Amino acid sequence: MKEILYSQFLDTLLEICPINEETKSLLYPYLNSQKLPKGTHLLSIGEISDKVFYIGKGLIRSYYFLDEKEVTGWIAAEGEFVSSIYSFLREKPSFENIELLEDSQLLFISYSDLQQLYYTHPIANRIGRILSEKYLLISDERIRSLRMLKAEERYYRFCLQYPSICTRAPLKHIASYLGLSRFTLSRLRGQKIKLDLLP
Q: Which residues form the Cyclic nucleotide-binding domain (predicted)?
C-alpha cells in the first residue's frame, strides 16, 4: 500500500514543485502509511498534533466546539495534506478534532522527522514553503468568502473548487464549514445557477 500512496504523493508534489529522482528517493523512508476506518479520530482536542497526513484515499474534516455547538473547520479529500496547524507548529495542545469521514488510506510524517528533513535538505524546505503558501492562500480565501460573499456565492464557489467534497461530505458538515444553516444549504442545492457568472 505504501508504494501506491507514495506514487500518488509524488504526483501531487510534482503538480506544485519540480523534484528530481534523488528527492523522490530521499522522502520515502520518512513516510509511513496507515489504513483507517471511517469515524477514526487522528487527533482529539487537548492532544498535541505531531504528524502531517497526506490523503491517498478518503475524506477528513476538522471540527471544534463553539458555545457547545460543533463547527467544521475544514474538509479535505484525496491529494491534500492535513494537520492541526497551530498545534503542529507550536507543539501545543490542539483546539480541534480531526475525524475520518470515510475509510481512508494515509501517508504521514512526524514532526521530528520533518524538522530533520528541513535541517538537512534544502529541497525539503522549499517543498514545505510552497505547501505552506498554498494552504495560506486557501485560508485567506475562506476568510474573504465568509466576510464578502452571499450564501449562494459561498456554496457554489465551494462546489466549483471542491466538486468531490461537495458530493461526498454530509450536508451538515458542509453547511457548518460555509457558515450556513442546513435549511439554507438544502434550499441552495435545489436551485440552479449559472456557475460561470460567479465572481
A: 19-117
